[in-house]
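User: I'm writing a tutorial on reading structure tokens. Could you give me a worked example: one chain, its sequence, then its tokens, then a sentence or two explaining what the tokens reveal?
Assistant: Sure. Here is the example chain.
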Amino acid sequence: MFFDIGAGEFIGLAILGLILLGPDRLPKFASEAASIVRKIAKISQSATKELRENLGPGFEDLQPSDLHPKTFLKKQLAQALGEDDVKQANGAKIDPDLL
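And here are its predicted structure tokens:
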């Protein structure tokens, strides 16, 4: 599910919200929370779009997860060495502090 929350956890959160907020304020709170999540998603999408536009050609398929240093390094190694060499190198032990 969303944010790695399972069905049991979701039900537990709903019951906790019902107890803390009460049945009269819970629907309003849920709609406001959903609105905030939508606004954050729009901001994230617009920031990613703006970043793609500012970086120029060659970055059309840029994902926010690609900006993580380890992911970026693996992607660059895959392009430079070829996929088969990187798969063989993945079995080697590398100190994570060096990455």
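What the tokens reveal: The mean pLDDT is 78. The chain has four helices and no strands.
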